[in-house]
Write a structure and sequence with these properties.
Layout lengths: L1 E5 L3 E6 L11 H12 L5 E3 L7 H10 L3 E3 L8 H7 L2 H11 L1 H10 L10 H14 L1
Parallel strand pairs: 3-4
Antiparallel strand pairs: 1-2
Length: about 130
């Protein structure tokens, strides 16, 4: 499951993928979803390390996103480490870390730990209602 969030903790979209696709495959889809909803791409887009790939970073920049915050995995080159230590990059990582408590809230306070509906359609309905609540 992927949650898309905008300022002030508002969930602007979500996706329940069949199977277990890698996060990297969902990055460009999330950006396109944002563009469809708001009519433009965001000024800043960030995600956790699971979404990082040079293809995803270049794709976001090609869409016109000014600041792309995708922390690289593994050992960083000097150039990449310098890029990731910039103040705007670190601030955005801190903002992204704030998403985790909202996911925890969905799980613990809104009962998203265990779906009560059965089947794929039921699970999708269940997640949608948890997010709306």
């Amino acid at each position: 499951m992927r949650l898309d969030e905008v300022e002030n903790g508002i969930i602007s979209g979500y996706s329940i993928a069949s199977g277990n696709p890698a996060d990297q495959q969902q990055w460009m889809v999330a950006l396109e979803n944002h563009r469809q909803i708001f009519g433009r791409v965001p000024r800043l887009a960030c995600a956790d390390r699971g979404f990082w790939s040079s293809h995803n970073e270049q794709g976001a920049l090609a869409l016109g996103i000014k600041q792309v915050v995708l922390p690289a995995t593994g050992r960083l080159s000097v150039r990449r480490a310098k890029h990731q230590k910039q103040p705007w990059f670190r601030r955005a990582q801190g903002w992204r870390a704030g998403i985790e408590p909202r996911i925890s809230t969905l799980k613990h306070q809104f009962g998203m730990r265990r779906a009560r509906y059965k089947g794929d359609a039921g699970f999708q309905r269940y997640v949608g209602w948890c997010i709306i609540a």
